[in-house]
Specification:
By secondary structure, this protein is of the alpha+beta class. Helix content is about 40%, strand content about 20%. The chain folds into 2 domains: about 130 residues, no CATH class; about 80 residues, no CATH class. Helix 2 crosses helix 3. Bound molecules: zinc ion. Zinc ion binds next to loops.
Length: about 230
């Protein structure tokens, strides 16, 4: 039988896929559990809320425990909550998808060894190159303001804050705020955990985007073999 092209599945596999939902991200080899592949699936829960599930086709003993840990890590690191009407799945309290952020959250959760301490990161980063600290503060309605402490030349500090804000807007799919250094989530809900998670990456957006593109390419290449695993 010819290997199915990505997007084409046998009917049996299709039924399974529909049950799981749409695959939004893939870790093709989990370094913390026998190099199994783990995928993140999305479907719709009550009120159309986006609900997420980490799943693996691996039959290795302990896979269920590994997946349960990844889900716990996503909840702790990303502020996700039990999905409405979808037992065992997670959602954001606002019900929005936040696709770019949830993909990153899933990848970061898979980098943690089972049993590792998992917690949300503070909304603060240290920019070593410019010796300054950048803090994000929630301003209500899903809005955030970034401000720097330290650094020497004011214009350089302002440019840096602006750059990090733009990076955060791109990585978290936020909207620019009314003033420089401001950004907001379109859902109108605070997501401190996501801001903490993505703020560090916003320091070097180009590297983060390259990594995202490489992961996407890997996902396409790994898709058929991931389907064949049992
Ligand atoms: Zn939201």
């Amino acid at each position: 039988m010819a290997r199915p092209a990505p997007g084409q599945r046998s009917e049996r596999a299709m039924g399974r896929l529909l049950e799981l939902g749409e695959r939004v991200e893939l870790v093709s080899m989990d370094p913390h559990f026998h190099d199994i592949s783990i995928s993140l699936y999305r479907n719709s829960g009550d009120g159309g809320a986006s609900c997420f599930l980490a799943h693996s086709y691996s039959g290795k003993e302990g896979t269920a425990e590994r997946l349960a840990f990844v889900m716990r890590a996503m909840a702790a690191m990303g502020g996700m909550v039990p999905a409405p009407g979808q037992p065992g799945r997670l959602a954001f309290a606002c019900g929005a998808e936040h696709r770019a952020a949830v993909k990153r959250l899933f990848l970061e959760a898979c980098k943690k060894a089972t049993g590792a301490e998992v917690a949300a990161l503070p909304m603060r980063i240290y920019d070593k190159k410019n010796d300054l600290t950048i803090d994000a503060t929630a301003t209500g309605g899903g809005g955030y303001r970034l401000a720097a402490a330290g650094g020497e030349a004011d214009d350089k500090v302002a440019r840096r804050v602006d750059g990090v804000t733009r990076g955060l807007i791109k990585l978290a799919e936020m909207e620019p705020g009314a003033a420089a250094g401001e950004a907001r989530f379109a859902c109108g809900t605070a997501h401190d955990e996501l801001v903490g998670l993505l703020l560090g990456r916003a320091l070097n957006v180009r590297a983060a985007m390259r990594e995202a593109e490489a992961a996407a390419a890997r996902g396409i290449l790994a898709a058929p073999s991931a389907q064949q695993q049992t």
